[in-house]
Amino acid sequence: MWEGLPDSFYSAWVEYSRSASNEVSLSYKCILVEGSEVTTFQPADDLYPAQCIEQLSSYLEASKRNWKSCKIEFNPQTAAITYEY
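Below the sequence we write its predicted structure tokens.
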């Protein structure tokens, strides 16, 4: 997912949301320098982010959890996933 971002950035995230008809939308956001405005970025392709959400979706559905939104937030040191039912 880092492709499309500069080598040095403050924070970035990919947000997924799923509609009642199971359509998934993606948005890619980043903050390049601490305190700067949120901007968008475009990864080299959507394949890796799509695979991430497919795996997370499979896990949540196997756990009988029907998710509405998910956010994968990362920086050069850490990553975190949050989701809403």
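The chain has a mean pLDDT of 84.
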